[in-house]
Design a protein that fits this description.
The protein is α/β, with parallel strands linked by helices. The protein folds into 2 domains: 175 residues, Quinone Oxidoreductase, Chain A, domain 1; 131 residues, Rossmann fold. The chain has 10 helices and 19 strands. Strands 3, 4, 5, 8, 9, 18 and 19 form a 7-stranded mixed beta sheet that branches. The model has no long low-confidence stretch (mean pLDDT 95). The structure holds zinc ion (ZN) (2 copies). The site of one zinc ion has 9 residues, from α2. The site of one zinc ion has 6 residues, from α4.
């Protein structure tokens, strides 16, 4: 008799269904994790409702925390019963980037919730090497936010020192807010947040943003804005970032764009004339000596940062298909939505 579990299965474009599926079995080097909380990522929506899924049927979900209930081999049994967070990227371990520990740049990686089944389910199988213990002081929901917090931290580590600078963030969704949280912690002098939705302003201010503005409003900062973080995924925000940033300033690109980005000759010329530096950022580092994940868990576990206030909704698996459609169609105002299987 095979045991089963409940999971949200993406059966085709836009068709996410609650189903009873076989319980996956951990092989050597793997662990079976009971999912206790899984965040809905901005990237899950185009994966579910657009054309970015790698295959069907797929169980999405890559931002999660839970507890280990079984392991594939006895040598890993010490994990059983432990609360964990899970790095969703499964590196090949062989390519030049993996050998440097730069797993996020791997040439041939697996990914929980996109390239293999993820955690919109009661259980998920993961490599033991991708586990980190969840600090006792953090809830599973906070643990589920480790991934976006690590992605935001990784992005800011790309741009170097920001102490004493003036920074602006476009897009006050989870990644923009988390970027602001790390910027504040790193000692920026002034932090400006932009969003087209004014309902996000009070949360942003409670997380340390000094000023929150509608994007068309550019305050006259006499010294100029040193760093602009584009976390909205809007092409207009990218153009606005080029306008807003000071000469020789930095623009950090963190938001995925779903459509073509067109730059006018004038806007392109700003990159040249202002001698701007553009930074791309992707995923997060999990390397032993340089782990964004360990830093996030250290800071959050010791109470130096808190991101629990980002959670706007907790929903159950059976509510998810309709709820996620509402998110996609922007009928539901939300910040971070967490599934509780
Ligand atoms: Zn994500
Ligand atoms: Zn690799």
């Amino acid at each position: 008799m095979t045991r089963t579990m409940r999971a949200l299965v993406l059966e085709g474009k836009g068709s996410l269904c609650l189903a009873e599926v076989p319980l996956p079995e951990p092989k050597e080097g793997e662990a079976l994790v009971r999912v206790r909380a899984c965040g809905v990522c901005g990237s899950d929506l185009p994966r579910i409702f657009g054309d970015t899924a790698y295959f069907y049927p797929l169980i999405p979900g890559h931002e999660f925390a839970g507890e280990v209930v079984a392991t594939g081999s006895p040598k890993d049994e010490e994990w059983i019963g432990k609360g964990v967070v899970v790095y969703p990227l499964i590196p090949c371990g062989k390519c030049p980037y993996c050998r440097l520990g730069e797993y996020a740049l791997c040439e041939d990686y697996g990914y929980l919730g996109s390239r293999q089944n993820g955690a919109f389910a009661e259980y998920v199988v993961v490599p033991v090497t991708n586990l980190l213990p969840l600090p006792q002081s953090l809830s599973f929901e906070e643990g589920a936010l480790t991934e976006p917090a690590a992605v935001a931290l990784h992005a800011l580590r790309r741009v170097g020192r920001t102490f004493g600078e003036i920074a602006a963030v476009f897009g006050l969704g989870p990644l923009g807010l988390l970027a602001g949280m790390w910027l504040k912690l790193s000692g920026v002098r002034k932090l400006i947040g932009y969003d087209v939705d004014e309902r996000k302003f009070s949360l942003a201010r409670s997380m340390g943003f000094d000023v929150t503005l509608y994007p068309s409003f550019f305050p006259a900062e006499p010294e100029g804005i040193d760093l602009v973080v584009e976390a909205s995924g809007s092409a207009q925000a990218f153009v606005d970032a080029l306008k807003l940033v000071r000469k020789r300033g930095r623009v950090l690109l963190l938001g995925n764009q779903e459509k073509n980005v067109l730059l006018s000759p004038e806007d392109f010329s700003r990159i040249l004339r202002k001698e701007l530096t553009l930074f791309g950022s992707w995923n997060s580092s999990f390397a032993f000596l340089d782990s964004d994940w360990k830093k996030v868990l250290d800071f959050a576990g010791s109470g130096r940062v808190s991101f629990a206030s980002l959670i706007s909704h907790r929903i159950r698996l059976e509510e998810a298909p309709a709820f996620l459609l509402g998110m996609r169609e922007r009928r539901i105002p939300y910040v971070k939505v967490v599934l509780i299987p």
